[in-house]
């Protein structure tokens, strides 16, 4: 797959007058997270650079940044591809999530907490479920966890987890039944939100830790099955 510019040209306005590799990488990161470039897709310098109106050098620097974030991989004499995660990658992503997200909840100060963003993410997830839009539900679920991390009030933590959540979307893109993956966590998100609304961060952390453990088990199950299918003659 090398023809990807359709729709990407609409993002050119986001570059503004100060077109930089960082801005280009922001756009591509969002597109990768949204599934516009699925895992394994070869990224065409000519088509993407033309769509965004940026130089080849700027685009290559953006590719380099996203390769550093483990979203892309450069294959010698073949080009740049959206990374295909391994089971070990998925396990490490969840290990990082557990360390960071649980620490954020555990370190919250005295209530009340600023939970408007969390509540909005829960509402968006409910709306997506009504519409049977499981991709949107997955997006709302990740927004919930971004808002959870944001409770730490740390730009560095937000930056770290932005890349982790983008990698997580690469894992979600190979799940064959997104409804089965995401729907059970709607109620769990509500329970975590309710615990925080009540000022019970201990209960919220306990719910979150179990949540992440169960989610990891489900995603790894899918990955192992996919690997088995691919290796079957």
What does this entry look like structurally?
This protein is mainly alpha-helical and 233 residues long. It has 10 helices and 3 strands. The chain has a 3-stranded antiparallel beta sheet with strand order 1-3-2. The longest helix has 30 residues, at 201-230. The mean pLDDT is 88.
Outline type: globular
Number of helices: 10
Which structural class should the secondary elements be placed in? mainly alpha
CA-based gyration radius: 19 Å
| Order of neighbouring strands in the sheet with most strands | 1-3-2
Strand coverage percent: under 5%
Helix content: 55-70%
The topology string of helices and strands comes to HEHHEEHHHHHHH
Please identify the oligomeric state: single chain
Distance between the termini: 24 Å
- Contiguous low-pLDDT stretches (5 residues minimum) are none
Q: What is the strand tally?
A: 3
The profile of the biggest β sheet is:
3 strands, antiparallel
Estimate the mean pLDDT confidence.
88
Topology:
Layout: H1 21-33, E1 42-43, H2 45-52, H3 56-68, E2 72-75, E3 79-82, H4 87-106, H5 116-130, H6 134-150, H7 155-172, H8 178-182, H9 184-197, H10 201-230
Helix pairs in contact: 1-3, 1-7, 4-7, 4-10, 5-6, 5-9, 6-7, 9-10
Question: What descriptive keywords fit this protein?
Answer:
globular; 233 residues; 10 helices; mainly alpha
Q: How would you sum up this structure in a few lines?
A:
This protein is mainly alpha-helical and 233 residues long. It contains ten helices and three strands; from the N terminus they run αβααββααααααα. A hairpin with a 3-residue loop joins strand 2 and strand 3 (79-82).
């Amino acid at each position: 797959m090398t023809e990807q510019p359709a729709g990407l040209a609409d993002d050119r306005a986001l570059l503004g007058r100060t077109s930089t590799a960082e801005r280009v990488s922001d756009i591509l990161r969002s597109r990768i997270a949204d599934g516009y470039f699925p895992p394994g897709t070869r990224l065409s310098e000519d088509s993407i650079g033309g769509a965004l109106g940026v130089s080849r050098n700027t685009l290559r620097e953006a590719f380099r940044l996203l390769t550093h974030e483990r979203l892309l991989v450069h294959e010698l004499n073949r080009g740049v591809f959206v990374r295909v995660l391994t089971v070990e990658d998925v396990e490490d992503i969840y290990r990082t999530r557990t360390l960071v997200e649980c620490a954020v909840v555990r370190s919250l100060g005295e209530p009340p907490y600023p939970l408007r963003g969390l509540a909005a993410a829960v509402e968006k997830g409910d709306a997506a479920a009504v519409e049977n839009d499981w991709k949107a539900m997955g997006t709302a679920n990740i927004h919930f966890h971004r808002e959870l991390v944001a409770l730490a009030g740390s730009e560095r933590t937000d930056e770290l987890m932005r890349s982790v959540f983008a990698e997580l979307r690469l894992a979600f893109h190979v799940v064959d039944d997104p409804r089965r993956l995401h729907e059970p966590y709607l109620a769990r998100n509500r329970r975590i939100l309710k615990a925080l609304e009540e000022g019970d961060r201990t209960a919220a952390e306990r719910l979150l830790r179990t949540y992440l453990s169960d989610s990891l088990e489900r995603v790894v199950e899918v990955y192992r099955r996919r690997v088995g299918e691919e290796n079957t003659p």
